[in-house]
Amino acid sequence: MTRRLFIFLMVILLYEPKELYAQLNFTQSFALPDNAITINTAENGEEYSEVIYPELRRTNKPGTPDLPVKYVQFLLPPGMTAKNVIINSVKYEAIKLNKKVKPVQIPIPTSLNYKLPDFMNPDAVIYESDSPYPNRYC
Question: Which pTM value belongs to this model?
């Protein structure tokens, strides 16, 4: 009986199901730098707010607000896949802007014979909504 219990315990301890590894905690916080919000005149002659945060990337869908964004990637062990992502808490600070945030523009191609694209106007669905943008985190 003792030998069977020992073998059973050894099998359980040596068997390493993938589900036992899978928890990762990550915390991220941001502080808006001084003078991060400027007002500039765009190519269409209108004034827009621009949010400058040098350490972050920018949103990239033309017509949407040109905002700083942080992309986070996690390296998983070979053969592992993430089952889900849970965001436990989000804290925001509302910032009053005098002008709308400048929309993302169509990228300028890196060729000699390119035609400068027309100014991409703000996406009315997003800019006229009272919902925060972006409305999802991942």
Answer: 0.70
- Under-70 pLDDT residues of the chain: 1-22, 137-138
Q: What is the pLDDT of residues 10-40, one digit of tens each?
A: 555 555 554 555 577 778 887 888 888 999 9
Q: Does the CA dihedral 36-41-42-46 come out positive or negative?
A: positive
State how far Cα 5 lies from the chain centre.
50
CA distances for 97 relative to 3, 39, 51, angstroms: 73, 9, 10
Q: What is the predicted pLDDT for the residue at 14?
A: 55
Containing domain of residue 52, as a range?
1-138
| Tokens 């191609």 belong to residue | 109
Nearest to 51 by CA among 69, 60, 38, 40: 38
Q: What is the DSSP string of 86-98?
A: ------------S
34 vs 110: CA distance, rounded Å: 33
- Look at the chain and report how many structural domains it folds into: 1
Q: Which of 81, 59, 55 is nearest to 69 (CA)?
A: 59
